[in-house]
Write a structure and sequence with these properties.
Blueprint (H helix, E strand, L loop, with lengths): L1 E7 L3 E7 L6 E8 L3 H12 L1 E8 L9 H17 L3 E5 L3 H9 L6 H16 L13
Helix pairs in contact: 3-4
């Protein structure tokens, strides 16, 4: 079962896909926001995507602001049009993590999408969505 991670922004949208077993997230591409929907439709068809995971930015208060509303609108359009389940994953601090991973002064949106997707995959692979067990060895 393959998953698609989406980091939606006003200017760009980052995409990541999972491996066929749904264990690992792999950065895929960065698209202009204006071209995101047809590109996502093509990726879903080409890769056999079973679930789309959209990153959801929250304000420091935990509330959803304009960015989260935009992401939910995109997710709803994808769900309705592509008939693929859409889930949302908190993307707090993923841009900073992507910037550190890429090692540049600017985050790569496809890396941010892969962090969002990996977080989702890790959470769903643990019992009841709880924290992953730690290996102290």
């Amino acid at each position: 079962m393959r998953f698609l991670g989406v980091d939606a922004g006003e200017a760009r949208v980052g995409l990541a896909v999972s491996d066929p077993e749904g264990r690992y997230a792999i950065p895929l591409e960065v698209l202009p926001a204006s071209a995101a929907f047809p590109a996502i439709r093509a990726v879903v068809a080409r890769e056999g995507i079973a679930v789309i995971v959209v990153g959801l930015a929250r304000l420091p208060s935990g509330d959803e602001g304009d960015a989260a509303r935009m992401a939910r609108r995109l997710g709803e359009r994808l769900r309705r049009t592509l008939d693929v389940p859409v889930e949302y994953e908190d993307e707090t601090l993923t841009s900073q993590a992507a910037e550190q991973a890429v090692g540049r002064g600017r985050a790569s949106d496809d890396v941010a999408a892969s962090i969002i997707l990996q977080q989702y995959l890790d959470r769903r692979s643990t019992p009841a969505g709880g924290p992953a067990p730690h290996d102290d060895a």
